[in-house]
Amino acid sequence: MLLIPKKFRYLQTHYRNAYKLRYIIMAKVCDITGKRPRVGNNVSHANNKTKRRFYPNLHKKTFYVPEEDAWITLKVCSKALKTINKKGITAVLKEAQDKGMIVIR
């Protein structure tokens, strides 16, 4: 049984299977850097402004951690991917854990 927060109960009638509902509720936050959507404006030629959201460029990636001998799946932005390529997954995971971004068991 999937527990659905009250503010999303109205979606239950539109999405009958919980698999689809899970992706609606999922946060768009990078697991490594903590980047999240920001709010800004669309600005027309006539200088009319309407609110919009700027989303981070997130990718769901699977990484192999040799120290743990395990595969982990993370939602990471493009900047985090570059950092992982430069420093290595182990060092990046340690830094993210020190910052409190992720919890490694």
Tell me about this structure.
There is one protein chain. With 105 residues, the chain is an alpha+beta fold. It has a single domain (32-105), classed as Roll (Ribosomal Protein L24e, Chain: T), CATH 2.30.170.40. 31% of the residues lie in helices and 27% in strands. The protein is built from 4 helices and 4 strands, in the order ααββββαα. A two-stranded antiparallel ribbon has the order 1-2. A two-stranded antiparallel ribbon has the order 3-4. A hairpin with a 4-residue loop joins strand 3 and strand 4. Helix 3 (78-87) packs across helix 4. The longest helix is centred in the C-terminal third of the chain and has 11 residues, at 89-99. The radius of gyration is 18 Å and the shape is elongated. The relative contact order is 0.15. It holds the Pfam family Ribosomal_L28.
Give a nutshell description of this structure.
The protein has 105 residues and is an alpha+beta fold. It has helices spanning 11-14, 18-25, 78-87, 89-99, and strands at residues 38-43, 49-54, 58-65, 70-77.
